[in-house]
Amino acid sequence: MDTRDLPLGFGMALAQNEPAMKKFESLSENEKMSFVEKTHSVNSKSEMQSLVESLVSG
Q: What values do phi and psi take at 57, rounded to 5?
């Protein structure tokens, strides 16, 4: 999955959280697609930041 394929808000939130970005990059393609699916139910910037943070917090 190319970063150009990511939803804009998700890409921006990842760019602001380097540990989460590195974790996302280490995921398999299926895991990345599954995680990106979760972004479709996010309704705010704070929810997106929480979702991105979940990559590194468990």
A: -100, 0
Alpha helices by DSSP H, listed for the chain, are: 8-15, 18-26, 29-39, 45-57
pLDDT tens-digit series, residues 13-25: 999 999 999 999 9
- pTM for this prediction: 0.87
Long-range contacts of 30-36 (CB under 8 A, 24+ apart): 32/1, 33/1, 36/1, 36/5, 36/6, 36/7, 36/10
Contact present, 51 and 42 (Cβ < 8 Å): yes
